[in-house]
Amino acid sequence: MVAARLAVAPSSPTKRLRACMPPSAASSTLRLSTSASQKPATTTTAMMAAVPASSAVPPSVVPDVVRSDLRHAAEALSWQELHGANHWQGLLQPLHPLLRAEVVRYGELVEACYRAFDLDPSSKRYLNCKHGKKQILQAVGMADSGYVVTKYIYAAPDVPALPFGVCRPCSKSRWIGYVAVASESVAGRRRTTDILVSFRGTVTWSEWLANFMSALAPARFDPADPRPDVRVESGFLSLYTSDNDTGKFTTGSCRNQLLSEISRLIVEHKDEDVSITLAGHSMGSSLALLLGYDLAELGMNQGVPITVFSFGGPRVGNQEFKNRCGELGIRVLRVANLNDPVTKMPGVVFNERAARVLDGRFEMPWSKACYAHVGVEVALNFFKTGDLACLHDLRAYIDQLLKCPDQDVATDSTVRRVRDRVASMFESWRLQMAVIRTGELLRALGI
């Protein structure tokens, strides 16, 4: 598993969002490219499997032989396997074309959050969604996704005020994602309802401040069993749990909004097989994982599988949090660019490798203050000289998944080689973060 990350804030939240967004709505058409070294049959199948329902390619142009190949592949691989019923064993190296298509599909549904976000300061919906629930997916070119949006989600972290009113325009609750329900025909599902929650990444200044609140805090989601040793990043926890009634569309904390809506949908579809899929990019992937843990800790995953698709996500909690997620059966597929510094934070120094010694047989005294990644990793490897923003860009992630041949999905040797290169690139940065994390460790130990 590759180490994790923290983002460095740019000069403005607007510039940061543009780094995560496609250059225009026209980029919503998926770009497919292949390698000459691939076998023709494999390439054709992988390309067609990677085209989600939102693609501009009409069904009439798909050759019958390709339809037949995909149909047989779908019959051999159930959606439960695609969503981690077997922890994606045998599907990652090489990346199975149907799994690749599924990951791309959820990446597009997360990217819809960026496309629909209003960045016009003169707009009455500034820093909120530009479209109503019934129009959003159609407006971003995903009318055929098979999902119907049922609720918008708003959130704001509880962060300290900065001088000169720096965070004042962004302190209100802002639109951070949506809840949607899939039709039965999506991804080969039959008599199954998929409840999707999609989260965007960091945009506002208050959200950037929350990203840097890297001290670990107990989650305490289950009142009957608070589990104080299970700790998560305090900034992400604040964004998830803080109440803020100052926003125009605010209806309580992000947590209360989500638990209420998901509970309602589970009851509404109680006569069907229900699955819950949580997807997010960057900070949004942290919220997706917190929500998955929350639902499972409250027992809402009884007979309802919970799967998290994380794109460019940072670490969220400590080793106890990781262990507890495993005990609760939360399935996490983490897509990470080996060159993306955000996936290395928080915990650039005090992480899962620093928590144990001698091949993990002995736990160090500071292990409870160390961060750990959760889930199974799909390691991508892309880097563009002169364009560091692309390292964390969600569109770049999706395009790489679509166009990269199997050998571009990193092997263990690739991981080690790129890890060494990234370590040298960020050596000075790592030293600065070491000082910060040392201070956090001393606080955690009560020194």
From TrEMBL:
Is the keyword rRNA-binding assigned to this protein?
Answer: no
Return the EC number: 3.1.1.32
Gene Ontology terms: biological process:
lipid catabolic process
Q: Which GO terms describe its cellular component?
A: chloroplast
Q: Which reaction does it catalyse?
A: a 1,2-diacyl-sn-glycero-3-phosphocholine + H2O = a 2-acyl-sn-glycero-3-phosphocholine + a fatty acid + H(+)
Q: Where is the composition biased (Low complexity)?
A: 24-39
Q: Which domain of life is it from?
A: Eukaryota
Q: Which Pfam families match?
A: Lipase_3 (PF01764)
Compartments reported by the entry: Plastid, Chloroplast
Domain Fungal lipase-type, which positions?
Answer: 197-348
Descriptive protein name:
Phospholipase A1 EG1, chloroplastic/mitochondrial
The species this protein belongs to is Brachypodium distachyon (Purple false brome)
